[in-house]
Amino acid sequence: MSKGVVVPFGDPSPGGRPASLQPLLEITADDMGKIDRIIYSYAEAHVELIPKLAGHLISSGGKRLRPMITIGAAKMFDYAGETHVKIACAVEFLHTATLLHDDVVDESDERRGRKAARLIWGNQATVLVGDYLLAQCFKMMVETENMEALRIMSSAAADIAEGEVFQLTLQNNVATTEDDYMQMIEWKTATLFAAAAELGAVVAGRPPEEQAALRSYGRNLGIAFQLVDDALDYGGSSARMGKKVGDDFREGKITLPVVLAWRRGNEEERAFWQRVIEKREQHEGDLERALELMKKHGALADTVERARHYGAIARDALAAFPPHPARDALMEAVEFCIARAY
C-alpha cells in the first residue's frame, strides 16, 4: 500500500524560531512526574490483564498534552495546591479510555507507533479495560470533592460519547458537510481540550469569565490540533504521527481534506472518492491519487489554514491574561500543534 509523501503547507515559523513544547514541558515537569506515578497506581487492579493492557498504551510515549494543559493553566494563576495533579490524571485517563474505544470502533492496527491493544488482547478486553479507566477517571474526580470540576468532566465525557456516535452516522459518507464534520470534531476532540484548560482555572478558584477564557483556549486549540492531524494523515510522516501515513484513508474515515476535495471535485473525481471511501475499494496508487486531488483543490492547505484560524482564536483567549511564563508556554503550545504540519 502507498506510503504517502510529505507535503509542505507553507512557512512553519513566521516569527523565526520553531515552536516547541519545551517551555510547557519545563513548567509542568515536577507535576507531570507525580502524574506518571498516580496514573500507574490507578491502572493497577486485581485482574492482571487490566494493568498489562492499559500499560501498553499508557507507556507508549504520548505527549500527554491534555494533562499538561491542566497543569499549565493552574500554574498561570500561581496555584499552590495539589488537587490539579489528580484532576490532570483524570483528564489523561478519560483520554486513554477514548483511545482504546476508538481503536476498536475504527479497527485500527497501530497506536502511537505500536500495535494496537485490540490486536494483542482482542476487542472485548480492550473495550472493557477502556471502561475500567473511565471508571477510575471519575473515581479520581470524586476524590477531589470539587463538584464544579466533576460537572465539567462528566459533561465532557457525555460530549465525547455523543461525538463518537455522530462519527458513526457520518462514516464513509463523502457527502458529509463541513459543518457536520466540524461539529463532530468539536465533540470528539475539542471537548476534552476545553475541559482540560478550564479545569486549571476551576481548581485555582478563578472567576467565571476567566474559566470561560480558558475553555475557549482549549476548545480552539483542540479543533486546530485535530485539523492538523487530518492534514498529516495525507501529507505527514509516520515518525511524527505515531501511526501509519494514510491510516484515515485506508479506514475510509471522513476528514476535512476529504470533505473539501469531494465538494470541489468534478464528476470523475467524486466517483473516485465514493469508490475508495464509501465502498472501501482501494487499489495500489489510490493514496497517491487522493493526494493529487487534495493538492489540486487546495484541500490540505485549506485544512491547515483553518487550523491556523482556530489557533489564533486560542491565542487571543489567553491574551487577556497578564504576562506569565505559564501563559506564554500555553501560547507556544498552540504554535507547536500547528507546526506539526510542516
Report on this model:
This protein is mainly α. The chain has a single domain (22-339), classed as Farnesyl Diphosphate Synthase (Orthogonal Bundle), CATH 1.10.600.10. The protein contains 16 helices and 2 strands. It has helices at 22-42, 49-58, 65-76, 83-106, 117-121, 123-144, 147-170, 178-203, 208-235, 238-241, 247-250, 256-264, 267-278, 286-296, 299-319, 325-339, and strands at 110-111, 114-115. Strands 1-2 form a two-stranded antiparallel ribbon. A hairpin with a 2-residue loop joins β1 and β2. The two termini are 23 Å apart. The model is unreliable at 1-15 (pLDDT under 50).
The CATH architecture can be named as Orthogonal Bundle
Order of helices and strands: HHHHEEHHHHHHHHHHHH
Shape: globular
CATH homologous superfamily (4th level) name = Farnesyl Diphosphate Synthase
Count of helical stretches:
16
Secondary structure layout plus pairing:
Elements: H1 22-42, H2 49-58, H3 65-76, H4 83-106, E1 110-111, E2 114-115, H5 117-121, H6 123-144, H7 147-170, H8 178-203, H9 208-235, H10 238-241, H11 247-250, H12 256-264, H13 267-278, H14 286-296, H15 299-319, H16 325-339
Antiparallel strand pairs: 1-2
Helix pairs in contact: 1-3, 1-4, 1-16, 2-6, 3-4, 3-8, 3-16, 4-6, 4-7, 4-8, 6-7, 7-8, 8-9, 9-15, 12-14, 12-15, 15-16
